[in-house]
Amino acid sequence: xxxxxxxxxxxxxxxxxxxxxxxxxxxxxxxxxxxxxxxxxxxxxxxxxxxxxxxxxxxxxxxxxxxxxxxxxxxxxxxxxxxxxxxxxxxxxxxxxxxxxxxxxxxxxxxxxxxxxxxxxxxxxxxxxxxxxxxxxxxxxxxxxxxxxxxxxxxxxxxxxxxxxxxxxxxxxxxxxxxxxxxxxxxxxxxxxxxxxxxxxxxxxxxxxxxxxxxxxxxxxxxxxxxxxxxxxxxxxxxxxxxxxxxxxxxxxxxxxxxxxxxxxxxxxxxxxxxxxxxxxxxxxxxxxxxxxxxxxxxxxxxxxxxxxxxxxxxxxxxxxxxxxxxxxxxxxxxxxxxxxxxxxxxxxxxxxxxxxxxxxxxxxxxxxxxxxxxxxxxxxxxxxxxxxxxxxxxxxxxxxxxxxxxxxxxxxxxxxxxxxxxxxxxxxxxxxxxxxxxxxxxxxxxxxxxxxxxxxxxxxxxxxxxxxxxxxxxxxxx
Length: 479
Fold this sequence. Notes:
Layout: H1 2-59, E1 77-81, E2 86-89, E3 93-96, E4 99-100, H2 117-120, H3 127-130, E5 145-153, E6 156-168, E7 174-182, H4 184-236, H5 251-300, H6 307-331, E8 339-342, H7 343-353, E9 361-366, E10 370-373, H8 375-392, E11 397-404, E12 407-414, H9 440-443, H10 448-458, E13 462-466, E14 470-476
Parallel strand pairs: 9-11
Antiparallel strand pairs: 1-2, 1-7, 3-4, 3-5, 5-6, 6-7, 8-10, 11-12, 12-14, 13-14
């Protein structure tokens, strides 16, 4: 059992660690993706700001050779025309996306944007050409594009996010500004967070598994106490002992209380079985001894053999054995048959077979009502009730069947002294006879009423004493 408990703790700890690991991996992955996206967006924003600053200088007429460009290490910048010719380049910027770039070289014949009077002051008919692409001279495009490429700055090749912004100078010529922002800080930050997670995750899992192990061990400690006590009870066969009940009102506390209830029911059942065996042995001993005595006398003195007495003892022994066998089947949980039984017809048949009774059985109201169950067992109940009534009746025994709602009611009453109020439940116990008037020869073994009630209960009904000498059997009407 210790190994089982240990495996329970191990499974609980492992399960908790796996659940936490999966949750942390999912959460960590989401955090890394969000962090990477945010840092890349931040790099793109920084690149856009740098590109727009340069584009604004171009739009305001600053010559390409005099543009104020950011440091190449921080934000590499390249300005090119529509033909891809480099107009300006940041310091130490040698290549972008594998393409080498040189120092800025202005186009032949140009003195910089806005410097040529002929170009700058063209007639109105040239305005349509200036509107190509949606930009007017001196404007910066609102749209921005992003490209993740490598750049060689001062001999160091690294990854950058470039923002691409277009602008037109004062002459209406378009320039494309590429300004980059290094992605290395973003990658370093993501790497640092990932490294911290990889280091912290195993440590956290160890802590979770350890705490789960300790908590589970403490939670299962009362279970081990219950197990130990149950083992001791099994070894000692002392069913009066009980398992310890923890003070907590949790599942383990309920388990302990249920176990004690089971032990109490088992103890009661075993004690009842012991009494049953003892009483049965006692009841069987008398008719067997009497029959043996008569047979021994008959062997020695045939003329003295009491044949009627021997037959009576044999019949009594047969009835007692049948009663004990039926009780054994009932105690074993035998389910009654599901036949439909007409109580009124059963009463008429039983009465017709009782021709030699001491007291005549009178029939009262007989309502035709059917119940579900075993006809033989219900007939046994009726026979036991009539035997009991005739045993104590003075002159009259009466039986009736009525219906009360969803219940079929069979009543048997006699004109005898009745059952005292304090004994109306005790008479249904096994081997119980209330007084000396119920002698063994006249009163049987005291099993008839016990059998009758057991059968009634197993048929979903009840059997009780009403008004002193009225025995009432209630059974549910057949659906």
